[in-house]
DNA sequence: CGCAACGTAGCACGACCGTACTACCATGAG
DNA sequence: CTCATGGTAGTACGGTCGTGCTACGTTGCG
């Protein structure tokens, strides 16, 4: 038997090369050729692991989801103070280059979903993850008696999710219209108004 | 002198055809050929008005901006009650098919800006417009004594803008995760908390 | 009427696209 | 050692891409 490669790791490398192409030249510049060149392999070799362009785009989008969920899983859900809650929530915000890239790529690919059906199913997953993240934070805090009484947790989850997405959106783009600290401050003020 | 056409109107028609292609097949499907076919003209004819692909994309993006600003201008800035303010603000939210399409296209094109420099300069304009819209609403209400005292209007503008973008984001996509009424209710609650 | 202009259509070119297919190489089980 | 096997590279094909260019109506001023 010849040398075996880890297909999953390979897929991730190629997906990362795809990220780079998207970030530097836009989704329109993605082709099996450009991505293979970016990854430093031949087209034939790329297609041995990712046979079609749709599969390549799907792998790139799946990588966004994997990275995000891995980050969430690594963070302990230890919520005793408001600062803990803020830290947990800011984990879902694009506050560093890595997460900014991740979200930019996700947005770009989501916009292309109309032309590539395999992307459509991957579109909603991170959104659901963020919502359930908001829900966990609020429910945990509420259960610990950290929040005011009489809050509609469902409505508060939606509101927090909306706020988080708005912040994320403003944190993106070359001209950062919102500083990291300002985003954190807005989140803190929002939570403070609901704190016990 | 032969028949003259209105170049601006023509550009708008072609840009609209470009919108349709983007909405149905993604930005990746945009080419001078597909858009010309969608508009029902020949490639040569299209290129007589929009000589390059970059120009075509830019025209499509500019149309987003024009439509939005036209809508804003049509709405009178008559702010006497909270309902007026809500109405003014919801004007900037994608609450009908037209505005949803408009924003979807804008997002898709903004994501492609990396590969088409002419789009980059058009990216920030609507964002600025929305921010100044928020500012006008808040300042007008504050000047009329409708808002609580001691509000930091600058920070409130940013917060309102973030909230509006978050709502807009949630109003998009095939699976509408937020109903029109829910969005309006969130906006109303936000303003109510700041009302005199 | 005639002709200069403007709009329209279409072809040609070189480049790049996605994909299929084949030849080659390195490897490790037997 | 040998050889089947999985990985890599390269070529080829039919098609579409952006763009330059030319030829052809069509129109309304002089």
From TrEMBL, chains A, B:
<keyword id="KW-0805">Transcription regulation</keyword>
<feature type="DNA-binding region" description="H-T-H motif">
    <location>
        <begin position="31"/>
        <end position="50"/>
    </location>
</feature>
<dbReference type="InterPro" id="IPR009057">
    <property type="entry name" value="Homeodomain-like_sf"/>
</dbReference>
<dbReference type="InterPro" id="IPR039538">
    <property type="entry name" value="BetI_C"/>
</dbReference>
<protein>
    <submittedName>
        <fullName>TetR/AcrR family transcriptional regulator</fullName>
    </submittedName>
</protein>
<keyword id="KW-0804">Transcription</keyword>
<dbReference type="InterPro" id="IPR001647">
    <property type="entry name" value="HTH_TetR"/>
</dbReference>
<dbReference type="Pfam" id="PF13977">
    <property type="entry name" value="TetR_C_6"/>
</dbReference>
<dbReference type="InterPro" id="IPR036271">
    <property type="entry name" value="Tet_transcr_reg_TetR-rel_C_sf"/>
</dbReference>
<keyword id="KW-0678">Repressor</keyword>
<keyword id="KW-0238">DNA-binding</keyword>
<feature type="domain" description="HTH tetR-type">
    <location>
        <begin position="8"/>
        <end position="68"/>
    </location>
</feature>
<dbReference type="Pfam" id="PF00440">
    <property type="entry name" value="TetR_N"/>
</dbReference>
<dbReference type="InterPro" id="IPR050109">
    <property type="entry name" value="HTH-type_TetR-like_transc_reg"/>
</dbReference>
């Amino acid at each position: 038997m010849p040398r075996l490669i880890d297909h999953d790791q390979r897929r991730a490398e190629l997906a990362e090369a795809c990220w780079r192409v998207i970030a530097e030249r836009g989704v329109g510049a993605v082709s099996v050729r450009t991505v293979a060149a970016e990854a430093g392999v031949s087209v034939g070799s790329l297609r041995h692991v990712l046979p079609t362009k749709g599969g390549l785009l799907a792998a790139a989008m799946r990588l966004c989801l994997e990275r995000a969920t891995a980050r969430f899983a690594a963070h302990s859900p230890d919520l005793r103070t408001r600062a803990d809650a803020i830290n947990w929530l800011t984990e879902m915000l694009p506050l560093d280059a890595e997460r900014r890239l991740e979200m930019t790529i996700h947005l770009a690919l989501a916009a292309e979903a109309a032309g590539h059906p395999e992307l459509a199913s991957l579109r909603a997953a991170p959104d659901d993850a963020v919502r359930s993240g908001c829900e966990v934070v609020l429910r945990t805090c509420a259960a610990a008696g950290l929040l005011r009484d009489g809050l509609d947790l469902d409505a508060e989850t939606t509101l927090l999710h909306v706020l988080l997405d708005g912040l994320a959106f403003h944190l993106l783009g070359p001209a950062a219209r919102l500083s990291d600290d300002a985003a954190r401050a807005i989140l803190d003020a929002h939570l403070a108004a609901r704190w016990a």
